[in-house]
Amino acid sequence: MTIDELLMRGRKLALIVSTPAYRRALRHGVAASTEHHYDPLPPDIRTVIDVGANRGQFALIARQRWPAARLICFEPLPEPVGVLRRVLGENAGVEIVQAAASARAGTATIHVSRRDDSSSLLAFTARQSATFPGTQEIDAMEVATTSLDDHLAGGVARPALLKVDVQGFELEVLRGAQGTLSSIDFVLVECSFQEFYVGQASADDVIRFLHGHGFALLGGTGPSIDRHGVVLQIDLLFARAGRAS
Q1: How many helices (H) and strands (E) does the chain have?
Q2: Which residues, other chains included, contact 232 with Cβ-Cβ below 8 Å and sequence gap of 6+?
Q3: Are the C-beta atoms of 101 and 108 separated by less than 8 Å?
Q4: What's this model's pTM, rounded to 2 decimal places?
């Protein structure tokens, strides 16, 4: 582990320890994704759509930064959903949807990783487990799917943030949200520069799609970097053209 990685972990731990909500989540084994605690986003976000919520790593950030916002979490796996409910608690502003966001409603097979936050609707490549040890596939199950356009047909309050982290399936989620995107002001999406899942879209594909729907790239955060210093994955932040934080 490099000095930079050690410093990053130290800063993450310090922020978690100093923030009561993040500290409480540790009792459930959930560490908030604190790399997004300082993302350049405005304080008046009214809707957060968390696609690939897993156990609430990003949802915790959303509740801390925008406590009055409506939070809609999509997570298909039953065990993480149970943890997500415990982490978020009973809250009228929170909706948990036990389904995978996709381009259409129906069912699909999800490939379950030993680390469930690496599970995907796409099959794993050999590169995935070789690059990220401990993420090999251990199971597969049928899960419900829905599209954001179907689920959010009633609209969302703005400003709205869409976060998508679904292990290579991001472009399919966005294809199922082409109507919803007209009401979205910011998009935070994980992008890969190598194929970790069979047939996954590249970072270039996602960037082109969002550019074509009126979004401009602001920057990136939380990169995964190999031992040669090559960026493998990164969370990219987009804003509707003409809109900055």
Answers
A1: 8, 10
A2: 131, 192, 193, 194, 196, 223, 224, 225, 226
A3: no
A4: 0.94
CATH number, domain of 202, equals 3.40.50.150
Rounded Cα gap, residues 166 and 73, in angstroms: 12
Range of the domain at 16: 3-89+155-240
**Is residue 51 domain-resident?**
yes
- pLDDT, tens only, 168-181: 999 999 999 999 99
Q: Look at residue 199 and tell me if it is in a domain.
A: yes
Closest Cα to residue 200, out of 174, 238, 219? 174
Burial class (CB in 10 A: 0-12, 13-18, 19+), 19: middle
Number of domains in the chain: 1
Q: What average pLDDT does the segment 121-135 reach?
A: 93
Alpha carbon of residue 181 to chain centroid = 16
First to last CA, the chain: 34
Q: Is residue 195 part of a domain?
A: yes
136: tokens are 């090999």
Decide if 73 contacts 14 (C-beta within 8 A): no
Residue of 13, 14, 63, 61 whose CA lies nearest to 188: 61
Say what the pLDDT of residue 43 is: 96
- Is residue 39 in a domain? yes
